[in-house]
Amino acid sequence: MDTVLQIEDLHKSFKTGFIPKEKKILDGISLEVKAGEIFGYLGPNGAGKTTTLKCVLGLIFPDKGNIEIFGQSNLSMQAKEKIGFLPENPYFYDYLSATEFLSFYCDLTAAKKERKKTQITTLLRMVGLEHAANLQLRKFSRGMLQRIGLAQALINEPSLVFLDEPLGGLDPLGRKDIRDVIVRLKEEGKTVFLSSHILQDIEMICDRVAILVEGHVVNQGPLQDLVSEKVQVTEITISGIGSEDLGDLGERYSAQGDRVLLKVFEEEKIASVLQLILEKKGRVHSLIPRTETLEDLFVGAVRQK
Amino acid sequence: MKILAIALNTFKEAIRDRILYLLLFFASVCIIFSRLLALLTVGDRAKIITDVGLASLSLFGALMAIMIGTGLVYKEIDKRTLYTLLSKPIQRYQFLLGKYLGLLLTLFIMLALMTVIFLILILLHNYPVEGSFFIAILFIFMELCLITAVAMLFSCFSTPILSTLFSLAFYLIGHLSWGLETLVNKMPQGGVKTVARFFYLVIPDLENFNFKTEVVHHLPIPPKVFIYSSLYGLFYTVFILALAMIVFRRRDFI
Amino acid sequence: MRKGLLILLLVLSCGLFMGVKSIADKIPRSNIPGASLIYIPSGKYLKHATFGYSSLMADLVYIWAIQYYGDHNIAERYDHLDHIFSIIAELDPRYLDPYEVGAIIAVYEARDPYLAFKVLDRGLEKNPDQWIFPYQAGHYAAINLKDYDLARQYYKKTMAIEGAPAIAQRLYADAAYKGTDFRTAWENWLEVYQTSDDERIKKIAFNHMYQVRTAMDLAELKDAIEKYKKIKGSLPDNLDQLKSAGILDSIPKDLDERDYIYDPETGIVDSPLKWWKR
């Protein structure tokens, strides 16, 4: 598979404060994004995710390092023709209507004029905004702005799309819609670079991830490789059993009413718990084996730093 | 063309800015008020009306150029509309030129509106509409082109308030460069004089574009002066725009 | 606060400040607004302090000056007339109205023609092509000051400027006459007579020539009679005696070839008719 985005040893510091003090934001970032995958870029706030993106897009000039998109310099016009970008908390020209807005952005690319109209209609349908085609952007809700931002990122039919926190501030329905659009992009053969800290969504759709902590990539690779399938703890919600009887089978947490949440770390002990419940005529409300989540990996990586 | 697309978009945005209409309102008030002022004078009334009219066009035009120009680039950076724009296949200088031309178009229309109001007042008083009016107004527009470029330059790296102050300072210094000239001429020959003379040539001389007095007194303007003033305006504007492009080229948008 | 109370407060305070202002306006103030203009130092640098709006500033100062000089409450308003009008001249030297109006105010209200001359001289200095300034100065010199020498100088300046009206020369000649420079007067009236195409003006010129000639002749005769009296001890019986006594070579006649009238009892000579009755 081809590499569509290659970042090598990226360094960037900023001078901040009245007496300029240098603060290193990116300390040697290297990563690779392959064609046709959804790449997740994770990290806590302030790790440097947005800075990395801005370096890739030519909004910030790195101190050191090499960035290539489709084998060309990231600053070249040819590279820019093939990408699209949705920034975090996007803000656009309020007085334009959705159609005027997309038309303006289309004029800035090499897209053909004859196809402009159909392209705009298709995109508006794809992001679910056909009903608002002539509505002024100032009247758009947060979710609508996110969608039109996505439409703008796709206006030139890019092969590589950069999304910075695309699901931020959306309600669950909105998040599902955007997730579906992202998955559809992958099905169309596009590559998606997704920067986020909402781990559940990343887990759901990403193929490969990189975790960024304090300017370093601490972990990188396919999601299933990073997160082990070993069961770490089984959570059993039971009722009708007194705490004396449970002994040291597991950690106890009280749930609603007389229910108890029991966290069992050893697999062998699960059988014992079930045995106990059968004997004492208790009830099992739920039994959930938990594997290592991305969250665990994430938290662990951050704590290590 | 991409520059044109940005210019038209900038025009659409600028023309909606209410500050323009506020200034247009004040300019109209001044021009119409000149009628009352003219009643208080003894002698030539046309002079008063022409003076106030041209001064209003010049002053309010400059205010419009500065107030919109200083927000031109800053707003895009502050509101981050710039990010999506620059990630598209356009060069940074194309963006700057587009913004500049868009604002020029806006100012042209505003100046035209003020000119119409002025001409209506002149005609209402049955005074003749002189061709020289249009020449003075053309040079007022040229001065505005330069002031806009300066406002935009400051907008590339400074907040609107500071940019406004700097731009106003530029305007005032531009009308005072004579002071340096007098000083330079009085200096004894030598190194200091050469340095001072260099500064005198670099500092803008906006009096070059000021033909208000000539128009009001119906004095002839030699064609050489037109050509040289226009060229000066052109070259200085190009200089400022080039400076802006340099400042903007490698700027990090944090 | 309740809305009604707020509105009452609003109306009350508005009424009060309006009332106070109308009372305050009636109190005479020694310093009217804008009077600090008087303290602006004049000088050629003032023009540039207006950042390109000097023409407009000149208008505003002029309009202010008109109101200032129209206000009879200010007693010493004429003290700075020259200064204020010089400010206007510095700001816009080619603005012609203020020079004329300043001079008018100086002559008819301040009753100081020399002030008017200062203003008009400045006008001519900055606008050497404007004959109106020395022309008006000449009028003020002749009519208000009765200083015919000064008037002559101004009219001469007027004549030197292209486009000056023909009457300037006539006024020059007249002033010369009134200043008893008969030679100049005669020469100029002669020139007017010879160069004019207008019959009426020719007639006027000739009348003046008659007047000048008569005056010259009468002065000469008077002088001769005095001499005769000194030599002979008594007045001559007629004018021919002046010739026979060797005092005059010939007895002048007026331009119409008529004799001058001599009264032997009083010794007074006079012209046969008044010059303007010709």
Keywords:
heterotrimer; B: mainly alpha; 11 helices; 80% helix; 0% strand; globular; C: 278 residues; mainly alpha; 2 strands; 62% helix; 2% strand
What is this entry, summarized?
The complex is a heterotrimer of chains A (305), B (254) and C (278). Chain A is an alpha/beta fold and 305 residues long.
Describe the secondary structure blueprint for this structure.
The complex is a heterotrimer of chains A (305), B (254) and C (278).
Chain A: E1 3-16, E2 21-34, E3 38-42, H1 49-57, E4 64-69, E5 72-73, H2 77-81, E6 83-86, H3 98-107, H4 116-126, H5 142-153, E7 160-164, H6 172-187, E8 191-196, H7 199-205, E9 208-213, E10 216-222, H8 223-226, E11 231-239, H9 243-246, E12 251-254, E13 259-264, H10 267-280, E14 283-291, H11 294-304
Parallel strand pairs in A: 3-8, 3-9, 6-7, 7-8
Antiparallel strand pairs in A: 1-2, 1-4, 4-5, 9-10, 11-13, 11-14, 12-13
Chain B: H1 2-14, H2 18-39, H3 45-78, H4 81-86, H5 92-124, H6 131-155, H7 160-174, H8 177-186, H9 191-202, H10 212-216, H11 223-249
Chain C: H1 3-26, H2 54-70, H3 81-91, H4 97-109, H5 113-126, H6 132-145, H7 148-160, H8 167-178, H9 182-195, H10 199-232, H11 240-244, E1 261-263, E2 268-270
Antiparallel strand pairs in C: 1-2
Helix pairs in contact in C: 2-3, 3-4, 3-5, 4-5, 4-6, 5-6, 6-7, 7-8, 8-9, 9-10
